[in-house]
Amino acid sequence: MGILRMILKALSNKRLLNFGGTLTIWAFAFCFSLPSAAQVPIKKTMDSIDSLVTTSLEKDVGIIPAPVFNPAFGAGIAVLPVFIYRPKGFHPETKPSTSQGIIYFNFTGRWLAGLKQTLYLNRNRFWIDAFAAYASMNFKLYNNITASKDDYREIKFEGFVSNLSFLVLARRHFYIGPIFSSNYLKQEEVGVSQPYQNEYHWYHTPGIKLSHDSRDDIFYPIEGWFSTLSFESLLPSKSYSYDFNKITAGISTYQKLDGNGDKIIASRLYTQLGIGDLPLHEMASPGASPILRGYITGHYLNSSIISLQSEYRWMFSDRWGTVGFLGYGWLFDQPNQIKENLGLYSIGAGIRYRFFQKFKINLALDVAFGRNSANVYFSLSESF
Questions:
Q1: Are strands 201-213 and 224-233 parallel, antiparallel or unpaired?
Q2: CA pair distance 32, 73, nearest whole angstrom
């Protein structure tokens, strides 16, 4: 998925506070994947949110201050409000809905603010995801050929991004529906004068999405499958020369290794195939956790990517757990140029703390290593 929107779309996979699959990717892949929520002694709020699973009568909010450091964006502070709720009167089988937000600024003056809403209605027959954000960010774009830390261009993104999907349950576990993204963006290469680079442009991208979800839990599954397939096409405009179609697909599987599900193997295949001329904010980039950990989102970019990753998850007590993971990806331009790829490995480990027990939501700290790269991830959710 695109960089700008990968930061956004990671949210669409229902990972709570992991805005970490575009300015959206850069802005959110780094922010929502990297928040540290360790300094949140709000037991009353935690218990109140936990109670929603059984009472379904009220809603509450947790506000998490999160110091953030990412080499692509610098040090800063993020404030992450989150609501978890099932509206009063909804059937108990209806999955909990979530409302999430982020306000981030760093010490160089860069900032972003965004909102994300996921709704399940009518006993999960309707599934709605909506996201909107405004961001002003700089990042380093590395040369895909040399992969050298000293061979990069500094890129600045600024503008508004949004995404909406409305899926309907077609049959058991299967959803289908339209998706639409609308972005108003300006991108420029710092220190380089290029035509139109200082101008804002609208990018409207409609599409269709299919999804299969047989997971036993949306926050911490121990069994089942979660798959998505989408097709998007950029509407033409006289203000730019971009013209592309994009196919994205993801397949995640979860298998418990013992009777109570304390030990599981989770695996994910993700691919984006970009066909045509994609703007930078629509390109694929490793670094967002749904793709490959161990990279700074935006350092390596191209139209297409295929990635595989697996991880072993072990909750060795009621509150504490650990993970180990590895993966590999192929970054390339057009689908017919897959042989001309940049190989990217990923390996790492992490610890978990069960932050909301009844919701099975973990606070995660991961350390990951990639090709000429390493990164640390703080998140309130699993990677996929």
A1: antiparallel
A2: 13
Residue 145 belongs to a domain with what CATH number? 2.40.160.50
CB 33 within 8 A of CB 25: no
pLDDT on residue 81: 79
Q: What is the pTM of this model?
A: 0.79
Query: Which residues partner with 100 through β-bridges?
Result: 82, 116
- Residue 58's pLDDT is 39
Place of tokens 């937000």: 101
Q: List the chain residues with pLDDT less than 70.
A: 1-76, 142-151, 190-198, 288-290
Chain centre distance of CA 268: 14
Determine the Cα angle at 13 with ends 352 and 318, to 5°.
25
Q: How far apart are CA 174 and CA 209, in angstroms?
A: 11
Q: Which range of residues forms the domain containing residue 236? A: 3-380
pLDDT at 63: 58
Nearest to 208 by CA among 162, 177, 249: 177
How many domains does the structure of the chain reveal? 1
In this structure, what is the dihedral angle of CA atoms 39, 43, 49, 51, given to the nearest 10 degrees? Answer: 150
From 45, 14, 49, select the one nearest 32 (Cα to Cα). 14
**Tell me, what amino acid is at 351?**
I
- Token pair, residue 274, equals 């970009």
- Cβ count near 55 (within 10 Å): 11
Query: How much of the chain exceeds pLDDT 90, in percent?
Result: 43
Beta strands in 190-303 (DSSP E): 201-213, 224-233, 243-256, 263-277
pLDDT reported for residue 147: 52
8 Å CB contact between 157 and 185: yes
Q: Is 281 helix (H, G, I), strand (E, B) or coil?
A: helix
- The β-bridge relationship of strands 111-121 and 61-70 is unpaired
Q: Which two tokens stand for residue 127?
A: 């599934």
Token pair in block for residue 291: 């793709």
CA pair distance 64, 79, nearest whole angstrom: 6
